[in-house]
Amino acid sequence: MSAVRQAGSGGADGPDAIRLFLCGDVMTGRGIDQVLPHPVEPHLFESWARTAAVYVELAERAAGPIGRKLDFAYPWGDALAVLQELGPDVRIVNLETAVTTSEAAQAGKGIHYRMNPANLPCLTSADIDCCILANNHVLDWGHEGLLQTLASLHDAGLRTAGAGRDAREAAAPAAIGLSSRGRVLVFAFAAADSGVTPEWAATEARAGVNFLERVSARSAAPIAELASARRQPGDVVVVSVHWGGNWGFDVSREQRAFAHGLIDDGGADIVHGHSSHHVKGIEVYRNKLILYGCGDFLNDYEGIRGQERFRPDLTLMYFPVLDPASGDLRELRAVPMRIHRFRLERADAQGSSWLRRTLEREGAAFGTGVAADEHGMLSLCWQTADGVPAVAASKTA
Q1: Do residues 362 and 249 touch, judged by C-beta distance below 8 A?
Q2: Cα-to-chain-centroid distance, residue 256
Q3: Is 123 contained in some domain?
Q4: How far is 213 from 210, CA to CA, in rounded Å?
Q5: In this predicted model, what pLDDT tens digit does every residue of 219-250 receive, in sequence order?
Q6: Do 89 and 183 contact (CB within 8 A), yes or no?
Q7: Exposed/middle/buried for residue 261 (C-beta within 10 Å: 0-12, 13-18, 19+)
């Protein structure tokens, strides 16, 4: 992986634009790890599952045979062709699994996700630039597991944000240089309301996550100040936050105030929210993009029943295009995908329509709409801060 990306893919977004790829939670542990070439020991400590093989069996019962010792790139499926077609300058995911062989499972925690470090080509096969680690699973296998996760990712050339060997490292942004101008700075935070406990917070003497006790306008101010201090001319700043519960479309007043505060104080060009197992509404505030919930992107939940009305099998690949001088949103394309047999595939017409209607319904309160082209590509529509209608994509990729 190169240390510097060539900015600007040309086309409808212009030669100077910066295009990002963002998505929600990427969980490549447990069942997914078991079907890759080098599975870790499968034992679990869940109330109803004592082996990760249970999740493979559930998925196969629901969707058909998956196989074993599959190619590292298998989980990404059709997403790899989409990434190749749209050519983002920077690729950012929330990695919601420890990359470790640690046996130091967190006592009292109901779910523990881990992937064998030997399966790391699963991530590098998608040419990921930055893995967000500020979430409620990165310490599932203890501080030993976190330290191995950090070492494994860094040895593979992957940048991380939101967790570190101490508080300073956990708070530091990932910096992705662009060859022609500036950088993309990625700050990441794990909010208490997503299930992260204060004991997981990094300190001067202990590894952990970049912990955010409360999401509010007040808590946004010091983050914006920090980001502004690190920002250089030409930089684009992404603030990624793991917040809120797993289910439900509501966006709390506190979340909205926090996101607006980051933007008002010059701390964020994009607020990248995740934790919900399904997509949530999108806002464009003062020409800046707020993704309140990106939904799960990869997981082993197939066959688990009870939340079908949220369609957790459907997900989106988000491709915002930003003006490098201002950080303002120029366009947002979103590609509908479906998780099927632990693999991403393009969503069918019914799935794409469900995602479009959901974003339309949930975006209405934020003044955003969604258009779709003949290939199922979704495009965000909004009014700029000057009141000018914006339709954020051309009909061709």
Answers
A1: yes
A2: 18
A3: yes
A4: 10
A5: 999 999 999 999 999 999 999 999 999 989 99
A6: no
A7: buried
**Cα 373 from Cα 393, distance rounded (Å):** 10
What number of other Cβ atoms are within 10 A of residue 219's Cβ? Answer: 18
Q: How confident is the model at residue 86 (pLDDT cuts 50, 70, 90)?
A: very high
Is 285 domain-assigned?
yes
Q: Locate tokens 């799960």: which residue? A: 296
| Residue at token pair 């204060």 | 198
Selection from 78, 71, 51, 8 nearest residue 351 by Cα: 78
One-letter amino acid identity for 187?
F
Task: Check if the beta carbon of residue 283 is closer than 8 Å to that of residue 366.
Answer: yes
What's the pLDDT tens digit per position in 267-279?
999 999 999 999 9
For 7-16, b/e burial (b = at least 16 CB within 10 A) is: bbbeebbeee
Q: Is residue 396 part of a domain?
A: no
- Strand, helix or coil at 345? strand
Q: What amino acid is encoded at 12 in this protein?
A: A
Tell me what pLDDT residue 393 has.
Answer: 41
Span 7-18, average pLDDT: 59
Is residue 21 a part of any domain in this protein?
yes
Going by the DSSP 8-state scheme, the letter that residue 265 receives in this structure is T
Q: CA-CA distances (angstroms) from residue 59 to 31, 182, 185?
A: 9, 44, 37
Neighbours of 312 (CB within 10 A): 21
CA 80/CA 162 separation, integer angstroms? 26
Distance CA 29, CA 18 (A): 31
The candidate with the shortest Cα–Cα distance to 379, out of 362, 393, 359, 364, is: 393
Q: What global pTM score does this model have?
A: 0.94
> Hunting for tokens 């020409």 — which residue is that?
287
List Cα–Cα distances, 356 to 21, 78, 83, in angstroms: 19, 20, 21
Cβ-based neighbours of 196, under 8 Å, separated by 6 or more: 135, 136, 190, 209, 211, 242
Pair 312, 17: CB distance under 8 Å: no
| Count of structural domains, the chain | 1
Q: Name the percent of the chain lying above pLDDT 90.
A: 87
CATH number of the domain that residue 351 is part of: 3.60.21.10
Contact between 113 and 72 (Cβ < 8 Å): no
The range of the structural domain enclosing residue 230 comes to 4-391
